[in-house]
Amino acid sequence: MGITNNFYEVKNISFSYDGNEIFSDISFSIEKGDVLCILGPNGTGKTTLIKCLNGLHEIGSGEILIKGKNIKKLSFKEISRNIGYIPQNHAPSFPFKVIDVVLMGRAPYLNLIDAPRKKDMGIALNSLKTLGIDNLKDKEYTNLSGGEMQLVFLARILCQQPDILILDEPTSHLDFGNQIKLLEIIDNLAASGLSIIMSSHFPDHAFLSSNKVAIMKDGCFIDFGSPNDVVTEENLKKAYSIDVKLIELENKRKVCVPLKTNFELSL
Ligand SMILES: Nc1ncnc2c1ncn2[C@@H]1O[C@H](COP(=O)(O)OP(=O)(O)OP(=O)(O)O)[C@@H](O)[C@H]1O
């Protein structure tokens, strides 16, 4: 931590699956404490981009710099000490206890044969406490609800003590209330100095927790900037091909109301 300039920089990157280009020439940067929300329709390449951003997919061209260092030159362990990643789906296969799942977040700091130390256990317990789920610590991970699993996975990532969190649709398994709780957690984590990149299907989420928004469509960012500048009726129409009404609440918060499309089945 501690570096404020060029914290995480993406320069003209492109990616293709077997010659099929998914995106090209994407550039942006984020600083300490930024929350970037990536919006865009299904199949536009958000997950693919996110996998490039954390080094899981190798980009075709361009470069990604973490605190000035090219991601291609960093080992998996070094990337994991900098970036915590929560994928869209993370189905568990073995009934580990929650505390053990969270402790796995310490792997980038341990050698293969090392047992977690007292310090690691302290960090794991603290991660659970930060998210208010220390009551789950002795439960079997496989017995948790989808929402509880999402929070435990986030605790595991916090235990990794990264500077950057990359979250692929972090609210996808959460109920209406827990979605807001998670966005507030994201807000708090950013205020404590973490930088966060997340994808979402809900433009409202950009107003709730982000200071930067990108709208991805047709292989590029069609807009990038502050939520007020980017989440507009015009851009939402361009992105999702529906009419959306933006309404401002008394506290100036904006909400997006999708209008009916009058779609009819041709039976
Ligand atoms: N492993 C793969 N091999 C080939 N094509 C893929 C692969 N993974 C994804 N794709 C294709 O790449 C495109 C982008 O997929 P991606 O999952 O990145 O989109 P997305 O914006 O995250 O979608 P959604 O919002 O539906 O989750 C899609 O056309 C998809 O079919």
List keywords for this structure.
single chain, ATP-binding, 267 residues, AAA+_ATPase, six-stranded mixed beta sheet, Metal_Ion_Import_ABC, four-stranded antiparallel beta sheet, transport, binds adenosine-5'-triphosphate, P-loop_NTPase, globular, Rossmann fold
Give the helices and strands as they follow along the chain: EEEHEEHEHHHEHEHEEHHEE
CATH architecture: 3-Layer(aba) Sandwich
Task: Give the class-level CATH name.
Answer: Alpha Beta
Tally of DSSP helical segments: 9
Overall average residue pLDDT:
91
Strand order of the largest sheet: 6-7-8-3-9-10
- How many domains in all? 1
The SS-based structural class is alpha/beta
Look at the structure and name the CATH superfamily: P-loop containing nucleotide triphosphate hydrolases
Low-confidence stretches: none
Q: Specify the oligomeric state.
A: single chain
Give the radius of gyration: 19 Å
